[in-house]
Amino acid sequence: MPASKSDKQTSGQTDILMEGRGLERTFITGEVSVHALRGVDISLKRGELVVLLGHSGSGKSTLLNILGGLDRATAGTLHFDGHDLTHASDDELTRYRRRSVGFVFQFYNLVAGLTAKENVSLVTEIAKSPMKPEEALELVGLGNRVQHFPAQLSGGEQQRVAVARAIAKRPQILFCDEPTGALDSQTGIRVLEALDRVNRELSTTMLIITHNVGIGEIADRVLRMQDGLIIEETAPKRRLKPSEISW
Ligand SMILES: Nc1ncnc2c1ncn2[C@@H]1O[C@H](COP(=O)(O)OP(=O)(O)OP(=O)(O)O)[C@@H](O)[C@H]1O
């Protein structure tokens, strides 16, 4: 049974799960340097759902890749659950990704020849204390689709299998890069409902990237990026249910 938010806050842990300070990322291609991140400060609290908004090219994916241990910052510091990731070796970063992090991307990347259950099993077989694949699929509302192959599922259902696959290993943090980007609004809302449920029931910390300002209403906190910096932070008065929003 995962600890509730209040349990965690009284157990002596700080309520900050992840913290980046002064994060910079410069890409050098031939003679051209792109300063994709120009000194980002970001803190993610345990159990919170944060939406990261920003125009194309503002640095959202670059930031997500660094926080998720897929890339390294050129400058700045990064800590996760008391561990310094700034100077982590490649092996340590791999361990961090395997044990603690889940990813959901715009395209679902399911294996076509495997059923929904088998796609989720790919992850649960190598995790330490995973959920049963059926349990993860039930949590995202696909308890009746476990034996279906990706081609027999709608786009939104396939994305929910991808969410089940990402959360079945019980990651502490889930990074979602445009999880509804390929979906119409009604289908996208079903995917957001699955994410919202995982966040509430498992207290999984979440960072969701989107272009879609309306999705900010389901968050505890909304961050907005521009030109490689977080330029605005807001907290909606009331966190709406995904079924209450539209776009
Ligand atoms: N591997 C790379 N090599 C060179 N430049 C890169 C690389 N990755 C990103 N960039 C540049 O860094 C900047 C930020 O890109 P990033 O993908 O983080 O933006 P984004 O906000 O996620 O955009 P989008 O919403 O379009 O996905 C852009 O100018 C992009 O061209």
UniProtKB/TrEMBL annotation:
Q: Which domain of life is it from?
A: Bacteria
Pfam families reported for this sequence: ABC_tran (PF00005)
The protein's matches in PROSITE patterns, at most eight in alphabetical order, are given as: ABC_TRANSPORTER_1 (PS00211), ABC_TRANSPORTER_2 (PS50893)
Q: Where is the signal peptide?
A: none
Gene Ontology terms for molecular function:
ATP binding; ATP hydrolysis activity; transmembrane transporter activity
Q: Where is each ABC transporter domain found? A: 18-245
Q: What are the record's GO terms for cellular component?
A: membrane protein complex
The answer on whether this UniProt entry bears the keyword Transport reads yes
Keyword list (alphabetical) reads:
ATP-binding, Cell inner membrane, Cell membrane, Membrane, Nucleotide-binding, Transport
* Matching InterPro entries: AAA+_ATPase, ABC_transporter-like_ATP-bd, ABC_transporter-like_CS, MacB-like_ATP-bd, P-loop_NTPase
| Family statement | Belongs to the ABC transporter superfamily. Macrolide exporter (TC 3.A.1.122) family.
What is the protein named?
ABC transporter ATPase
Task: Record the organism.
Answer: Hyphomonas jannaschiana VP2
